[in-house]
Specification:
mainly alpha, Transcription Regulator spoIIAA, 2 domains, 32 helices, about 65% helix, STAS_dom
Amino acid sequence: MEHDQEHESCCEQTQRYCVERPIYNQELLQGHLHRRERAPQTLGQRIAQSCRCSSKKLKSRLYSCLPILQWLPRYPVKEYLLGDIISGISTGVMQLPQGLAYALLAAVPPVFGLYSSFYPVFLYTFFGTSKHISIGTFAVISMMVGGVAVREVPDEIISTGYNCTNITDSLDCYSARDEKRVQVAVTLGFLSGIIQLCLGLLRFGFVAIYLTEPLVRGFTTAAAVHVFTSQLKYLLGIKTSRYSGPLSVVYSIAAVLSKITTTNIAALIVGLICIVLLLIGKEINLRFKKQLPVPIPMEIIVVIIGTGVSAGMNLSESYKVDVVGNIPQGLRAPAVPELHLIPAVFVDAIAIAIVGFSMAVSMAKIFALKHGYDIDGNQELIALGICNSVGSFFQSFSITCSMSRSLVQESTGGKTQIAGTLSSIMVLLVIVAIGYLFEPLPQTVLAAIVMVNLKGMFKQFGDVAHFWRTSKIELAIWVVAFVASLFLGLDYGLLSAVAFAMITVIYRTQSPQYRILGQIPDTDIYCDVEEYEEVKEYPGIKIFQANAPLYFANSESYTSALKKKTEVDPCAILAARRKAQKRHAREIKKANKPRKKANKDMEASVKHEIANEELPVNGKFASAVSGLQDTSDDCERFVEPKANIHSLVLDFTPVNFVDSVGAKTLKSIIKEYKEVGVGVCIACCSGPVLTELTRLNFFDNTVTRELLFHSIHDAVLACQVKARSISQ
């Protein structure tokens, strides 16, 4: 009782509106409206307008190309500087060990990871629009770079291309191999940067939308497996070849297992201790996030401890533990990338450019939304392109945004790109001053850092359960992206995943949901009749809705669903009508056919048979009348639409475009239903769709704009008025 009273009081408080207006079709509505006058511009006028320059326009373009000119003069030193300094130092101590570690993934000496952690980061300060992301080396991109470097310069080149008979020659061979791999990685970075720069200048920032979240998460999860597998040999201290391309994960695991008996116990112990320390540090940072002023920099602590232990115990000589080795002091002179390698790495550069941009812009959007500022996707492309292309002249490989470092930079109080600049300066100090101190660092320590940083990516396996509950199609995209990237390699896997994602879009438009709508009593609101009990259909009127565009791929299914849902098939009705007419004509012809005169001695018996079997009824023989009656019943059953439907309303609210095939299909539907006495009208047709229909010559003498209505309710009322006028 109390619930009913509350419901009644709620209904009384509900606001109501009452509008009295004419029933508008498109032609009548356009007659009451006045279009704004727009003078059409010629191509020359458009070009002249775009090339016209004013001080305001020049200033806007300059700020767009160099965002630092906009925010640096307004930088509030007292409010932001301390937070940026703390954030920059915290990010820098992460940037250093990750730069060394991810260089191993890129199949280049560790010092090139430091170069990639300095030049691009410093350049992003001037050209980037995000205040919180940390640019630099990233596991997925480094893995993709390493795959290309190993493919172009495989380990076999040592045995086939060089004479490596003694230790000195062997070191020279490895050095020559690494130098060639550096050239490949640098050229790849240059080309991917040029691609990003061109896409940004052409305003192609939207390309990232084709990498949907399920696709990116499935792809990065597979990349995490690739990265983890590639680090097993460093953790175990065994010597195996590095593989790239399809089934590289399988080959890598098989190679590790085949040499598992040669595991270096000292390297394994050091690596496992580092993994435990790093996991403990991450757990402490997570649990005591609010209590800690800054996260514990466990990675740099592990690097320092590992370096000290290795140098003190001489692990390299005493236990044959592989170490980082020579780290040249100072910066390299700029050099032009090897341009003759471009044809070999072009496709890989496209994949790296798009994946790198997608990673960066997705993180940038998250932080921009959280802190209330805007980022420019096209400018981000340009910024990444400059970072990669210019950085390649200084021996850096492809970079993007690092998720873990970005989270640290934001959580430790970073406010602007100044934090990134300070972190790059810390890396610079290591390169020019104290880099040699890290030469005894065991490679197993770097492998431990890489593996622990994959923890967040491995958590993405939980997406399977999430997408199973929410969307089976997105689950399929995730699984295809993961499986394809895992077994075909990251480049072919990404291509396969994007192609599959496109196919799912086509599948969704080819298999939309079709509904028959009805009215909520005493309102102008129309809903699915199968979903709500209160919704009722108007007698004689069917309202049909499809939540997809009408184009070549789904025009046939649209027509089939329309006939099935309305239970009115004009083709079947017309076919049955023609068949009935032909049968009727045959029976008439048979009934009127002159009969041959029989012999006089048989006349009585013939008349007796006629009198008993074919007695004329109303001028026709009984058999003909009976056959006609049966045919008439069949014809009536097919020719008359079910429930005496006289009108059909097509709801075009979800339709966002129509092509020539869709327009022809729509015109055919109107014509066919008209032939069986069912009038068709279109409701809620948007402006762009109406313009497209006009351009496709949809309207003529038989199909006029009077069939288009502003709303479903207008169309229904017009159908009712027309039906009443016909019945009278």
